[in-house]
Amino acid sequence: MQTRTSNFSSAEQSILWMQWWYRLTIPVNVARESERRARLVSIVVFLLLLDNLCYGVSFFFTKSSTLPIVIGIETVLCIVALFFNRRQAYNTAGGILTLTYTLGITAVILLIPHVSIGLFPIFALLIIPQVLAATLLSPGWTFASTAFNIAFIFLILELKPLAAGVTVAISLTYFFIVITMLLLVAGISFVLVKNLLFALQQRDTAEEAAVLERQSTAVAEVKAREKAQLEQSIRMIVEAQTRYANGEVDVRVPLTSDNVLWSVAGALNNLFSRLQRQQEANHDSERVLHAVRLLQHIIALQRQGKPMPLYLPSGTIVDQLAMTLLPSSQFAHDKRQQPEPYRQRSNPHLSR
User: Fold this and answer.
1) Is the pLDDT assigned to residue 72 strictly greater than 70?
2) Residue 217 CB neighbour total at 10 angstroms
3) Which residue from 52, 44, 57 is spatially nearest to 74, judged by alpha carbons?
4) What pLDDT does 80 receive?
5) Chosen domain end from 47, 80, 111
6) How many domains does the chain have?
7) Is residue 257 included in any domain, yes or no?
8) Is residue 332 helix, strand or coil?
9) Which has the higher per-residue pLDDT, 30 or 63?
10) Of 266, 113, 131, which Cα lies nearest the Cα of 187?
11) Strand-pair partners of 31
12) Mean pLDDT of 204-217
């Protein structure tokens, strides 16, 4: 079931001036079907209150002593129905409204002392609670309301005296006309409301299916993007590993924190950095070792009184030791100053 949102259907949006009334009389954050029933009860109460207002105006012309009582009772019942409507007791609210219309019409009929021709159009007004029973309760309740109305009309014709000029045949003729009308309206109301509820259910099902389809499409698109991102990330990781294996020690995997493989890339980048630092440290150690061996070789030749090659500064701490042990003339400021024989033999000798 879909919950209520701020977006109403086009039919509901067309009654913008009623929104203030809906905010006062219907519950919030309810299912779509519950909201539909709450709105129906609300608008019926609104129309009934307008009807009571019109009857209240007519009181100043009729001066009926019972009319204020009927209007007061109907108004109280409408407020009670709104109370139950706000608490999502829609069947109770619908039953109260159906009973309100029924009591209002039957009260008017009971106040008429004789059965006259003008009484039968008032009998026809009992169609209203039948339609309300079908729409506010359920389609089957219209037949229960019809049965009550027929029994009520029959008792009125039996218990009240006939007015002058009204015979039994005439009263029976109008009785069957009214009964036929009530039964016809009950049948039509039942079929129409049934079909309407079925159509609304079909529409809700179609809308829910459309929502699910859109959600499935969105999920599929997200999964497709994630798959493409994953494949691209894997290619970038493999490429970085290949470049590092080929000697590019400063290579890194350029993945951001929003990537699914960001943690893997981060760990791999940390490994590359450590290996690079280790390689640089090994290179520095080799330079130190090479400088130590060169200094050792020069000192050994010095002790033997043999010609000594120039000391080429290595840029390590060994240079300070060489400056202490060797004269300044023994230092080469350029690698090209180093004697050729030494350059040819130094590498294999010093690499032992």
Assistant:
1) yes
2) 10
3) 52
4) 92
5) 111
6) 3
7) no
8) coil
9) 30
10) 131
11) 3
12) 89
Q: Does one domain contain both 141 and 107? A: no
Nearest to 4 by CA among 24, 29, 21: 29
pTM for this structure? 0.59
Contact assessment for residue 311 and residue 326, using Cβ atoms and an 8 Å cutoff: yes
In terms of domains, do 266 and 240 share one?
Answer: no
Q: What is the pLDDT of residue 337?
A: 42
How many beta carbons lie within 10 A of that of residue 90, not counting itself?
A: 21
User: How many other CB atoms are found less than 10 A from the CB of residue 64?
Assistant: 14
Residues 189/166, Cβ–Cβ less than 8 Å: no
216, 248, 280 - which closes a domain: 248
pLDDT given for residue 173 in this prediction:
92
CA dihedral 221, 222, 224, 227 (to 10 degrees): 180
pLDDT one-digit tens code per residue, 121-142: 999 999 999 999 998 988 999 9
Name the residue range of residue 87's domain. Answer: 1-111
* Alpha-carbon distances, residue 125 vs 105, 181, 186 (angstroms): 7, 10, 13
Contacts for 246 with CB less than 8 Å, ≥ 6 apart = none
- The percent of residues above 70 in pLDDT, for the chain, comes to 88
Give the pLDDT score at 147. Answer: 95
DSSP 313: P
Which pLDDT tens digit goes with each residue over 246-272?
Answer: 888 788 888 777 777 778 888 888 888
More confident residue, 322 or 42: 42
Is there a domain that residue 254 lies in?
Answer: no
Helix or strand holding residue 81 (H, E): helix 67-86
Instruction: Tell me the two tokens of residue 146.
Output: 């019809």
Write the Ramachandran bin of 137: left for phi over 0, alpha for psi from -120 to 50, otherwise beta.
alpha
Span 140-192, pLDDT tens digits: 999 999 999 999 999 999 999 988 888 889 999 999 999 999 999 999 999 99
* Cα→Cα distances 13→6, 9, 10, 16, Å: 11, 6, 5, 6
Between CA 68 and CA 57 the distance in angstroms is 10
Q: Among all chains, which residue has been given the structure tokens 């218990």? A: 159
Q: Are residues 296 and 241 in the same domain?
A: no
Q: Using an 8 Å Cβ cutoff, are 294 and 346 in contact? A: yes
Collapsed DSSP state (helix, strand, coil) of residue 292: helix
